[in-house]
Design brief:
Length: 287
Amino acid sequence: MLEMLMSPRKAERRPWEMFFVGAFYATLSILIVKWVFEQDAVLSQYSSIFVVTFTVMFSLPFVYYIIRLEEKKAAEISGTFERIKEHRKALWAFLWLFVGFVVAFSFWYILLPTTDAYKAPIETYCQINRPGNVDECFAQYGLKDVPASTQFATTNGERLFLIFTNNIYVLIFTLVFSLIFGAGVIFILVWNASVIAAAIAIFTKAELSALPLALMRYFIHGIPEIAAYFVAALAGGIISIAVIRRDLESEKFWEILHDSLNLIIIAVVVLFLAAFMEVFLTPLFFN
């Protein structure tokens, strides 16, 4: 029933509506976990993972069908520029879905500030943003016995290299995941939404009035970064669906492969620009 909230074709015509779909899926997931799993002494420790899992489950049908639609376009449309222009519609739908996840997660993390609800995202936040003093970061947000990272950067150039290489690792993982199971890549993207939401909740210091400013703080570089992941996911998903449909036996497969390679190149370029913005642009507006 939930997969009928928005069809892929309608989402590409009116992508902004996916914001409300994403916010609804994220909210529903948090409330289910809050009412059901957090009442259990054992399962409550994994609340953050259950939130991500339920959001993924709700989103899978839509992601699968929109990737399938894009693979069909790649096989039917001639010309690299025309294909990329057509894929832009799906990209906007994915981005609005992601923004819906982030806003809803952030809202509920602030409104329901329980450590278990976003324990894993906070651990990830500390590892990425405060690698030099992760123990202090864990203690500040009530986390204990978490393995610390020894990786840290001191200059902007080192930070740029560290952030870009980490993001490339995620991009490769996204691509491989989408090749193996086209729509399954939504797990990585929902997880990233939960981590960004945890960072936003930390930035706001549990004040809802600070939410718009916090969203701006992380969306400056976050939107291009996530867009790159979506482009890579789309590239891998298109190949995955083509293989499932046995397009390997047709001449169109090489055009689909060429289309996907172009998307991957675009994703890497955008990812570098996002890392550059995170290191040099965002600090100009936010400390």
